[in-house]
Structure formats: structure tokens, C-alpha cells
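Aim 2 progress update. The chain analyzed this quarter is reproduced below.
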Amino acid sequence: MPSELVGCEVRRTSFDYQVRLMLVDQPEPAGEPRVDAELVIETAFVLRDADGVSHELEPGSGPALAPVLALFGQTVSELAVPEEGTLTITFDGGARLSVGPDRQYESWGLTGRGVDPILVGPA
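Predicted C-alpha cells:
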């Protein structure tokens, strides 16, 4: 489980046919961040915003992905990845993102410094 993401801040959000979040931890004394990772979401996911409204989102859906922008500057407060590969991230502002495995495609992946790479393929 990528528990090293707890405490990381969302420093960048971007989307096209994927949704990407850059997650960075505070710098160590030498000035380098302990974690500098990218979460890539490639299939449908659910984002519950800080007001408790759930948004069922699909990468590649353009303006419909606007709720993802609210994650910018948020800090990961909790994270869970059970055996079946569903990623659930809770942010300090109250939002929660959840993406599960897909039957046909890679659903999400994590790469970068300070994390073990993960790729969740078809279920």
C-alpha cells in the first residue's frame, strides 16, 4: 500500500484521456521532497467533493472533469488500497477519490520518487 502518500500535497492536476495528479511531500532538510509521485487514472472514477456531492467522472470527458481542479493544494490525509486494487484517497479538505480496477483496461498507476510503482490492470 502506498502509505507514503499520506501527507503529500496535490501540486498539479491535468487531464486529457487520463487524469493526472502530482503528489509531493514537504522537502527534506536537503531541499528535495521525500515523495514526488504521479497518480495516473485511466478509467472511470468517483470524486466526492468537500460538500459531499459525488461526481462520477470519466477521463477524456473535458469540462465534466472540472471537480478535479478542487483537489489542487489539498493534502492526502488517508489512503487505502485493498487486495482487489481499489484506490481510495481522502484529502484534508474532505474530498475523497475512489478508482477501482477495470475489466478491460489499466485503471490507475502510481510512479515517481519515494513510492513503489503500482499499475492496476484489468480485473
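The mean pLDDT is 93. The chain is about 0% helix and 40% strand. These observations will guide the mutagenesis experiments scheduled for the next reporting period.
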